[in-house]
Amino acid sequence: MLGVESLAFGFPGHVIGRDVSFRLRAGEVMCVLGPNGGGKTTLLRTLVGLLPAHAGHITLAGDALARLPRAELARRLGYVPQGHAGSFAYTVGELVLMGRAPYLGAFAAPGAQDHDIAVAALETLGIGHLADRPVTEVSGGERQLALVARALAQGPRLMVMDEPTAGLDFGNQTRVLAHIDALAAQGITVLFSTHDPDHAFRHATQALLLGEGRALEIGPPAQVIRDATLERLYGVPVRVIALEGGGYTCLPAPVR
Length: 256
Description:
The protein has helices spanning 40-47, 70-76, 92-97, 112-124, 140-153, 170-185, 197-203, 221-224, 227-234; strands at 2-11, 14-24, 29-33, 55-60, 63-64, 77-80, 158-161, 189-194, 206-211, 214-219, 238-242, 248-252. By secondary structure, the protein is an alpha/beta fold. The strands form 3 sheets. It has a 6-stranded mixed sheet with strand order 6-7-8-3-9-10, with helices on both faces. The protein has a 4-stranded antiparallel sheet with strand order 2-1-4-5, with helices on one face. Strand 4 and strand 5 form a beta hairpin. Helix 4 (112-124) packs across helix 5. The protein is globular.
């Protein structure tokens, strides 16, 4: 579904990261971990075509991302940005309905099916009761859930989510992460970033540790998320602890 080969990414005239290569198949979930300022958002914006690659290749289902028309790209992938402030007082329902835009003609209005899909996306995230509220009047966490619902309404085969749990309470974090599992079960590929290594252990098949301008480790979370790699990534001592019954969790180690 997603192929990345020798990718260099950044802003015009400034490379942030380079030599990133990986492949994700349908239904796989990759979690991107890295420190603040480490390039996670820039990498994701490059992977969805919002920033041009400095070098390397990105393919979606075998097609070069750079050659896909914008409407086709929007049908194939959904993108949930980080920290959207909401400048216009669209209702939450209208915001989610915008996810159907790639399927409409230039002057076409959403039809009954588009409205049904938008309502279903709202209900899936548990925010159907917010449909008539302006996005400027809901909490940051509720707005983030609305952005996830908008991406779901696109019906993508690849979902890219930049810190989708940022600003969410524990219950809403659990709801979003559970939906990542549900998307993967439907054969949808998911790529998401987070600051919590536990999210990778519980919800990802692959982890990408991004730091020092490159991918420090890529592989199954249990193999690449270790005490040493996390300490190198974040600059603080960390302990990865095996849990009874399976799985792992991360805890800060005492600083001496």
